């Protein structure tokens, strides 16, 4: 049988999602080890999107295969009993053989959180980035609007990115302030390595008034990573969720709903 899992994790103490030879401290390694106990055989998982060291997830999605027969809630409770407290299985669902956590994904959703005040936080320092000078979120939104649609995002691509193409479609970028916190929500067909963090690093000087909003369009048009802003810190980044075509029967986050028809259409092309 093939199952999909929704996983929530705090990435603070991990060297990213992906299993690595030189360290057992990755989210994937912990999840596979816990699932293997329940399955009574070695389990490997495939994720929707790998996250870097220090990056968190509200709903990472993975799939795995097993011959072991267990009720769905037993997979959740039993796996969580074998996981550290900063990783939790939130849901499990049997899926069809043609489901693939990565390749079946039609859109992904990330959030970046900035604490915008003149002192760092004692409570949230591992879960937000900090910008001490006042940011103008309205200017950041105006700059971000230049990124909507289908573009070559080479200017926001890390040097070691393994994606076959830099062409991606951004459905939505929403920048909102609540008191001294700014959230940047981005929904796109897929993301390049460091794409969200590089976008945030480019929007920040716009919010500080150091660059005009048109500069974001100029950076995009340049298709050159060297002209964009710095890569923002990983601790403010969250993998929020994944959209899968309706045929797979996986529930959709409300944030995806305004774009469902477009995403479904693009997934069939």
Quick take:
This protein is α+β, with helices and mostly antiparallel strands and 269 residues long. It folds into 2 domains: 2-104, Alpha-Beta Plaits, CATH 3.30.70; 107-239, 2-Layer Sandwich (Alpha-Beta Plaits), CATH 3.30.70.660. The protein is 23% helix and 26% strand.
| Domain module tally | 2
Q: Report on the biggest sheet.
A: 10 strands, mixed
Number of strands: 10
The CATH topology name of the largest domain reads Alpha-Beta Plaits
Question: How would you state the average pLDDT, rounded?
Answer: 95
Give helix and strand order, one letter per element, not per position.
EHEEHEEEHEEEHHEH
Name the overall outline: globular
Q: Any key phrases for this structure?
A:
Alpha-Beta Plaits, 2 domains, 6 helices, 23% helix, ten-stranded mixed sheet, 269 residues, alpha+beta, globular
Characterize the structure shown.
By secondary structure, the protein is an alpha+beta fold. It folds into two domains: 2-104, Alpha-Beta Plaits (2-Layer Sandwich); 107-239, Alpha-Beta Plaits. 23% of the residues lie in helices and 26% in strands. It is built from six helices and ten strands. Strands 1, 2, 3, 4, 5, 6, 7, 8, 9 and 10 form a ten-stranded mixed beta sheet that branches. The mean pLDDT is 95.
Strand and helix layout:
Layout: E1 2-9, H1 27-39, E2 46-47, E3 56-65, H2 72-81, E4 87-95, E5 107-115, E6 129-130, H3 137-144, E7 149-152, E8 167-178, E9 181-188, H4 195-207, H5 214-222, E10 237-243, H6 260-267
Parallel strand pairs: 3-10, 5-6
Antiparallel strand pairs: 1-3, 1-4, 2-3, 5-9, 5-10, 7-8, 8-9
Helix pairs in contact: 1-2, 3-4
């Amino acid at each position: 049988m093939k199952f999909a899992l929704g996983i929530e994790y705090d990435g603070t103490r991990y060297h990213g999602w992906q299993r690595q030879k030189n360290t057992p401290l990755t989210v994937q390694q912990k999840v596979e080890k816990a699932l293997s106990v329940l399955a009574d055989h070695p389990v490997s998982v495939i994720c929707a999107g790998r996250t870097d060291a220090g990056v968190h997830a509200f709903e990472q999605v993975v799939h795995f295969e097993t011959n072991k027969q267990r009720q769905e809630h037993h997979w959740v409770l039993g796996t969580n009993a074998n996981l550290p407290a900063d990783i939790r299985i939130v849901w499990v669902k049997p899926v069809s053989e043609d489901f693939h956590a990565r390749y079946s994904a039609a859109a992904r959703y990330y959030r970046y959180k900035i604490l915008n005040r003149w002192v760092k936080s004692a409570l949230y320092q591992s879960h937000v980035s900090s910008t001490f000078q006042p940011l103008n979120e309205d200017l950041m939104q105006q700059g971000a609007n230049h990124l909507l649609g289908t573009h070559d995002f080479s200017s926001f691509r890390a040097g070691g990115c393994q994606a076959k193409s830099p062409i991606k479609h951004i459905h939505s970028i929403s920048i909102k302030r609540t008191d001294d916190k700014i959230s940047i929500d981005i929904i796109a067909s897929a993301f390049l390595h460091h794409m969200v963090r590089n976008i945030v690093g480019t929007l920040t000087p716009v919010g500080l008034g150091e660059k005009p909003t048109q500069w974001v369009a100029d950076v995009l048009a340049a298709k050159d990573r060297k002209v964009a802003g710095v890569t923002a810190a990983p601790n403010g980044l969250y993998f929020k969720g994944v959209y899968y075509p309706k045929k797979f029967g996986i529930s959709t986050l409300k944030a995806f709903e305004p774009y469902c028809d477009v995403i479904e259409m693009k997934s069939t092309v």
